[in-house]
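Posted in: Protein Modeling Q&A

I'm a second-year student putting together a small comparison for a lab meeting, and my supervisor asked me to include a predicted structure for Cation transporter. I've never done this before, so apologies if this is the wrong subforum. The sequence is pasted below exactly as I got it from our records. If anyone can share the structure token output, I'd also love a short note on what stands out.
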Amino acid sequence: MSENTAKQNVARLSIFSNAFLTIAKLITGLSIGSVSIISEAIHSGMDLAASFIAYFSVRRSAMPPDTDHAFGHGKYEDASGLIEALLIVLAAGIIIWEAVNKLIHGGDTLSADLLFIGMIVMGISACMNLFVSQKLMKVAKETDSIALESDAWHLRTDVFTSAGVLAGLILIQITGLTFLDSVIAIIVALLILREAASLIRRSFGDLMDESLDEKEMEKICEIICRHQNAYTNYHSLKTRKAGPDKFIEFHLMMPHATPLSQAHKVLQEVEDELKAEIPRITVIVHLDPCDGRCNQETCTFVCRRKT
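Accepted answer (user: helix_wrangler)
Welcome! Here is the predicted structure, written out as tokens:
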């Protein structure tokens, strides 16, 4: 199975599971008058919308570069992650509004006879979301897909919130304190907002061409430095990411008397190693001639300072 097929299959699985859970939670929440279950239905509805967006984005990001998108379509996944995060914020706002309104003005009395059904639905929701989120996260890590990872975190949050609502329903059944329903709904919303903040930061960072993380930068420098005896310096290292695709650009300074064919060979060796050890990477290297005036003592090249 190809990488793109795996991504699309797991995205479809997320759509189907979220559609089922949204309907089940909404019917149950309205039947027993539970704002926490209704809030979970809203959350699952937002997850469903996010799943559609993720599915669309992984399909679009898989398209090859064209004349209008020379660097590919990876930004679709970054945009998807940001949109999904904003949907989470919207869902959390609706949940908090409904819960606070019920705390202040009161609401329908919970149907004690149907609380058990609510518990069953929340238990099923937690189990289903745990299973699907694990599938999503596995494929997301294998393909470096922020869209699928965002979708996975949506569902993982649902696991905890569904479990929280389940615990709340049990407490209501035991104590009869129905206000706990609204309190739990607010806690659910705060957990959702925390997730949204993290997704917004990551997605926005990629959209703004934030550099690769420190670990990847160290790996890139280490690979370039393996060939330090063949060149005099490198500088202007720039990196960015678009969905699962990574882009590296830097200048490689060669001794001024180096033949072009030899310089190109060194460049090709560095580029090949980068591509072999860092998946889905595009490398752009600009060759600069060295003026020949540097020496071992005064050279500012980081590799030589470490030797």
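A couple of things worth pointing out for your meeting: Confidence is low (pLDDT under 50) at residues 298-307. The radius of gyration is 26 Å.
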